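Example A, followed by Example B.
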Amino acid sequence: MSKVKLTPVHIRYLLVMNKLRLQEKDLRVSAIAKETKLSKTSAHVMLRHFTEVGLVTQDYYRAAFFTPLGEELSEKMAANYVIVEKWLKKSFPLAEDVEMAACSILAHISDEAMDEFIERKAPKKKAK
């Protein structure tokens, strides 16, 4: 898919930004900071990084927009996150928060390995 190297923190920001986009909210530093519960400075640095690697663009008023690559990547991460989060919650029922664990897995596993994991987790079709 993409050769953009993402850390667990990058993935967390992408998930938040994708959520805001789906809610039709502006991708602004203040909204991202509020949703992540991190500082505006941290959100600004992340947006600048995403701009540098081609995942977002920003307009004159500092609103951010996903590029086609950024949108594709954020959607794929969101879909994979749901699968990994569900697996972690099932595997570790006493874990209260698996968000960063799921982001870490997504950051450190190849697309091929993730695709294979998804295939194994998919319900098996019964033979007739």
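Example B, a separate protein, is given below in the same form.
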Amino acid sequence: MLRPPTFSPLGVPLIQAVAPAAGVPTTFATVLCANLHGYDALAEVLPPAQVVALLEEYFSLLTDAVLEFGGQIIHLAEADSMAGFGLGDCRHTQILEALSAARSIQRRFARIRHAWQARFSIDTGIGIGIHRGEFAICALGSPTEPTLLVVGDTVNLAGALCRRARAGEVLVSNAVHGTHELAAAPRPGGPDFLCLPRIQLRGRSVPLDVWCAPVPARLRMAGAARSDAPDRTDAGREPGGEVAGG
């Protein structure tokens, strides 16, 4: 299914409101990107109309979680989505809210995942990446019907972390993990973030420090590994446990 990007009623106006009066609108935000693993398999075996119904269920869950924790949906397109937290607010990064939304998405999707697996015998899961930084929003294309695009390395990195994340994982950059908000957050008796070996994300010249956030469970997807998220031999990297898919 091909569809144009969809923006929330508040996400884009918030960016434009804090942008300079002249030039391309820019803002700082904590960006959360999510990708639906197993989407290609669903699209291959199901009629398009049925795929649309499943995507509506998926995006409804994701949107509800983002809005519940104060975020804004910036972009929805097929199996991918992007949300912003702390748009234009230099004093409050809302990193904790973004992480809470990510954990909520993973927890809520468990029921949907099991239902889809029972109906279609297809494993699905969500990989999430979170990064914070500056990005721009612009209108390109047809003068009469321009397409709104979100541009910048912040968006690219959040998307790359998202694609790298396994099903059930939440990966964050050092720009997120190193903030004082996260350092001061209480985690009584709970698992801490796991520092992964530095990874080389596709299209980037310098390896990055990446952290895996504690989540309820990391899923094991049946079938071949994703080409854009190759298997990693990260010893002891089960901060949230693991369950077998299917």
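On Example B: The domain at 24-218 is CATH 3.30.70.1230 (Alpha-Beta Plaits).
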